[in-house]
């Protein structure tokens, strides 16, 4: 296949306009062909603003466009399941924003629908596609920091004054664990290469924000007495960091998930008595994500991260939310795909 993958965007969310659409455009194998909104004026205005050829006044109309190969879904979390399944039934490959669903069971239904339709499904954890995470895994595999003893991750920001934000609608999948806590959980699973056994989480639930978790701190237990400690929040100063502690050294990632240019993606390795800054190529991780997905559609490589991985991440989030609301340690039963 030589033609570019033609993308339709279902919804005019800020993340789509600010990051994902520009990323797709900077990629090699993709083009943005259409965008849809339930608000006709918003669809038209967004298409004109971003120079997108086709604007649709309904999601259904976009899915009926036979020229669209794949869709990106940045809708509020509670709509991910419905529109992923409807896109699959329309024969479209699906890149869906994180978290993939509201529960692991929902995520499994989405994966099954895509399998049945013969289309690909991926969760939009863009940071995983950045080359630095391959480099970090190589440092770990080489034994530079020894055996991993623990991982600590943070992802916080303060948007609490925006009371109308969809992040503060409990029934829509609002809350910090869904929005940003998913990142350090996802990263720990990637770097440790195993699924966790239990979660214990303490959270701040805000009556002024529809009862969602505005801040959460957690302990995720992994096999071999390893653990992730993390905190996430939407009512705190901005941070997004990751620290991997070994018995012989340390990896520090100052900007772990949201990256910058001019060295903003670099990380640090402390070992053998010295601390070294590891230079990382400045790339658009959204563009790399799009090209990885396109190559899988074209049959040139498998998906780097399959839908089963997203289901596994949702099981951990399910346990975290259960723990935070019940104030208890929750065991996690994972079902790894053969």
Give an overview in words.
With 338 residues, the protein is α/β, with parallel strands linked by helices. It folds into two domains: 5-126 and 289-304, NAD(P)-binding Rossmann-like Domain (Rossmann fold, 3-Layer(aba) Sandwich); 147-247 and 314-331, Dihydrodipicolinate Reductase, domain 2 (2-Layer Sandwich), CATH 3.30.360. It is 34% helix and 28% strand. It has nine helices and 15 strands. It has a nine-stranded mixed beta sheet. The model has no long low-confidence stretch (mean pLDDT 96).
Low-confidence segments, ≥5 residues, pLDDT <50? none
Radius of gyration: 20 Å
Work out the number of β strands: 15
- Strand % is 25-35%
CATH hierarchy: architecture of the largest domain:
3-Layer(aba) Sandwich
What's the shape?
Answer: globular
Mean pLDDT: 96
Class per helix and strand makeup: alpha/beta
SSE order, one letter for each helix or strand: EHEHEHEHEHEHEHEEEEEEEHHE
Which fold does the CATH topology of the largest domain refer to?
Rossmann fold
As laid out across the biggest beta sheet, the strand order is 14-13-12-11-7-10-9-8-15
CATH superfamily of the largest domain: NAD(P)-binding Rossmann-like Domain
Q: What is the top-level CATH class of the largest domain? A: Alpha Beta
How many domains is the backbone divided into?
2
Strand count, sense and barrel status of the largest sheet are:
9 strands, mixed
Family: Belongs to the Gfo/Idh/MocA family.
Protein name: Oxidoreductase
Keywords: Oxidoreductase
GO molecular function: nucleotide binding; oxidoreductase activity
